[in-house]
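Please, why this fold?
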Amino acid sequence: MSTWHGQYLQEGCGGYCGRVQLTQQPQTSTGCVPVTNGELVLATDNEGHVGAGVTDALWAQGDPAARTVYGYASEHSLALVSKALIRAFYGQPPTFSYFDGCSDGGREALNEAQRYPTDFNGIIAGAPALDAIGLVGFLEPWIARVNTDAAGHQILGPDKMGALHTAVMAACAGPDGLIDDPRTCNFNPATLRCPDGQDTPSCLTPAQIGVVGNFYRGPVDKQGHNLYDGGLPYGSELAWPTWDFGPAADPNATRDSIAGQLALNYYDYLAPTARPGQPKNLQDIAFTSEAYAVQHAASAVNDALNPDLSAFHAHGGKIILYHGWADQAIPPFGTVDYYGAVVHQANGYANAEQFSRLYLIPGQYHCLAIGGGDPQVTPDFVTPLMSWVEAGQAPASLTMPTAPGVTPHRTITVTPTNPLISRTATPPGANNNYHWIGRYPVKPATS
């Protein structure tokens, strides 16, 4: 009532959403003083439906209107309603409006910039599920499927993650103990091969080596064509048990994982091929170019792949994208390639810098503060975004402290990423499946 200075902040929602959860402390902004002091008007929504959890998509069965609201309309509707309520209550509209979302919320953020460029002055798009169909239709079922043996049992379990992560860090971390860019990592999981006849937590069986390689590789068809922009990044291993597979005691661990449930709910209720009463199982899902074409028939509703942000820029909008380099849920490589397309569309990095930034945070898992990391940091993106929008102070390097309780206490400084700067190429057969810029409809660069 007395400390509002005119700003409105709208929060996104993750997964298939289906619930209203106003955190009053956005997951990307745990240190933002205006948020923690209650100086902002905050709003969020359930993306137009009620679900049993973030992996539940039953609400979409036979309801194309609900799918459209979820796909791209919900956040625009909430922005209109919230601004009307603010005007009615305070007697004035918000002076500045912001959107802050991660995961599916990051996809919502990009949808706002792409489809409704005048809704917000500033946008934060964290770990965006921008290729939503590729994510839930191909990457997530691939992760579950390649980790399932002929009897339906999980091949790779949580007990191997400590040794695997230690080996990856030894092979790829720099002197600061961080993997600054997993695309430069050459780790070979076969170096952890168990001696014949042995299976201990310190080594990988031949079958497990195959699973790990497929996790890093990402979904491909039989001809080796990519069906998604990369696989799980090096450095994400300790977070796989929280997303990509379940406990060893669960006989349906791969199906019951978050990845498995997102995939099966997509194919049962959201996919163009969904048929009521005909549930899918992981073995039914095809990894072919034909299946890719069929599933992406719905991409205009669900995906946020348009790199043309010129209308948002013309409105004076500023956008910060970020992604954890060790994201176990939504690999960061699609965000890098998307931003590369944005830069091409803007005719160069200098032009793109006028309205956009991309920050890639070493060691961070999904959605940063809620996803953990090695080490976990607690960044605040809202404050620099507000300074950029309201005072013209463009963000440069950002210093992020580690989360409370992390030992040793440290900070990580992250600079904006120019996606057009070439990286060190990985050798043939290594994890070099990361560049897929052709997925995004870009115009030829003129400079």
User: Anything to note?
Assistant: The chain has two domains: 7-130+303-439, 134-300. The CA atoms of residues 43 and 82 lie 7 Å apart. The beta strands are 7-11, 41-43, 96-102, 122-126, 318-324, 356-361, 398-401, 411-414.
